[in-house]
Amino acid sequence: MAKSKAEDALTTEELIATLRNTSLPTVVVEGLDDMIVYRAIEQRLSHLNVSILPTGGRSKLLDIYKRKGEIHTNSALVFIADKDLWIQTGVPSELIGPNIIWTDGYSIENDAIRDGELTNLLKAGEKEKFNAELMEFLHWYALAVSRHLEDPSVPICRHPNHILDSPDKHELTKCAEGEQYPAALYTQISSDPNRIVRGKSLLLLLVRNLSYKGREPKHNDKALLEVATMKPGPLLRETLIKATLPGFFVREA
Known about the structure:
Layout: H1 5-8, H2 12-21, E1 26-29, H3 35-44, E2 51-54, H4 58-66, E3 77-81, H5 86-89, E4 100-102, H6 108-115, H7 124-150, H8 160-164, H9 169-172, H10 183-191, H11 193-196, H12 199-208, H13 221-230, H14 234-243
Parallel strand pairs: 1-2, 1-3, 3-4
């Protein structure tokens, strides 16, 4: 069953202890923000009596995965992780294995957005505005990603509103002295943004265009994710299929 917010603050050691003591097959996921999607997966795996355990973040999940050999239990254990910026560089080989499922897109939100075809909720004028704002946001995002790949302390998770509505937006996309704008990266990201762009940012940009003053009905991010997971499309179905393959729920020796 889904865990509470208090359990989201558990340390890696406490989470490992929890997994050692469980008698249920368990799917380990990242955070509570994703639980709208994973709760739907949990319901569809109810015949296996599967429990979903959010760890409170990607780094914790990967720490636990690397230490899965310490989890001495007869219960099956599976991990589902977001690719994040590894969608640009590739998942490290040591993190590819039979007990870990990686999202197809940047994150589980990307897979849900694409499965639910959520951009189809936009009316004609809204879609034109959304696409224009997306390209404007990507002008900043590609530069931020390029810098982040060089220096992980550079943030890429700014709210789209902070970029699009900023009076200093020109400064936000201004290259430093000696820096070249990553035009090839921009082209690559803009060729498939629903898959490649950070999912939470993409979802917030979509909400911006589906919840403005005077629009009826208005949509929020949680409701959109719920709609997308009611009838899983090919990407979420693939995750379900992988999680229920014969022998998948077997702990590695």
